[in-house]
Amino acid sequence: MSTLLEVSHVSKTFSMGGLLSRQHVQAVQDASFTLETDRPEIFTIIGESGSGKTTLARMILGLELPSEGEIRFRGQTVSHKAPRAERLAFMSHVQPVFQNPFEAFNPLKRIDRYLASTARRFLDLSDESAIDKVMDEALHKVGLSLAEVHGRYPHELSGGQLQRCAIARALIPNPPLLIADEPVSMVDASLRMSIVNLLKALRDDFGVSVIYITHDLATAYYISNRIIIMQKGRIVEMGDARTVLEAPEHPYSRLLKASVLSTEDAGAGKLATDPEMVRVAGELAAAPSSHLAERPDGRLVRVYEGA
Ligand SMILES: Nc1ncnc2c1ncn2[C@@H]1O[C@H](COP(=O)(O)OP(=O)(O)OP(=O)(O)O)[C@@H](O)[C@H]1O
User: Fold this and answer.
1) pTM for this model (two decimals)
2) Where does the ABC transporter domain start and stop, copy by copy (predicted)?
3) Cα separation of 248 and 242, whole Å?
């Protein structure tokens, strides 16, 4: 089995401020995981705001360099400092899908023009009918067609349709990996599931792996094969999504699950999270030395020295 993506002991520290007031933020600490080529999957990264999800995604896309560790795609180190041709080849294989489709598209540019420029750039196509064919194929994968979007501007589509177009754009170079950072959070609630189902179909029908970044446990449970839970830059639990989400072991994972109560619980006035759970999870986040231990069910859980 060959490795598609290998994230190996990756950390990222941001430095801010002047010489005398320098501050360091450890956005990601010692993250490691691997995606295999022959096993397309939805690999979910979940965690509260500021837990390092986007920084990790940006490093995988080569938009940020790790402070420590290494990221390899098909055995080659990912870096935005790679020669242009190498970088373009990498970008055609690992495509991003962003949170807000209205920001991803230029409001003054017709959608088909935008898709066509992606086809020209990544597939080196110049023949108009070949470009139309590639666009139509990519749009069909997301349940649209070129006839439907031809000549239209971003504001003429719904948020859900536009996010589909953004995904179609990402699919044009036929990438084996999509990095989708909160792809449904700006989409109208009624259309959210259609985008989530689309990611699932891309995995099942076209063999595309997706790194799915979200705050949302419900959609994570529904589509993920594996999941990592991040807290303050560190992976605290990782494993099969159902194993982890049905019976989370790390106190922070349990806190995360308990924070998303059903409407039944809310109706019963049970929305408050156990303060003791909050205290324990907060204390552990600050604990300095810890490592991920392997459990018999295959999950990895962060354990703390002395705990
Ligand atoms: N360019 C940067 N310069 C300085 N600090 C940064 C930078 N980017 C991220 N950070 C900090 O790194 C930490 C992790 O941020 P990140 O955006 O990766 O978290 P996140 O889990 O994606 O959050 P959200 O869910 O809100 O998008 C935060 O404390 C953030 O303020």
Assistant:
1) 0.91
2) 5-257
3) 9
Both tokens of residue 144? Answer: 């649209």
297 C-alpha to center of ligand 1: Å?
32
Quick: pLDDT tens for 9-64: 999 999 888 777 788 899 999 999 999 999 999 999 999 889 999 999 999 999 99
| Total count of domains within the chain | 1
Please identify which residue in the block is written with the tokens 């799915």. Answer: 212
Indicate the residue type of 162. Answer: L
Pocket test for ligand 1, best of 14, 28, 256 (most atoms within 8 A of CB): 14
Q: Is 218 helix (H, G, I), strand (E, B) or coil?
A: helix
Q: CATH number of the domain at 92, please.
A: 3.40.50.300
The Cα angle at residue 119 between residues 82 and 169, in degrees rounded to 5: 90
- Residue 193, exposed/middle/buried by CB under 10 A (0-12, 13-18, 19+)? middle
C-alpha 51 to ligand 1 mean position (Å): 7
Which residue has its alpha carbon closest to ligand 1 atom 30?
A: 50
- Residues with CB under 6 Å of ligand 1 are 14, 16, 25, 27, 47, 49-55
For 135, the domain range is 3-304
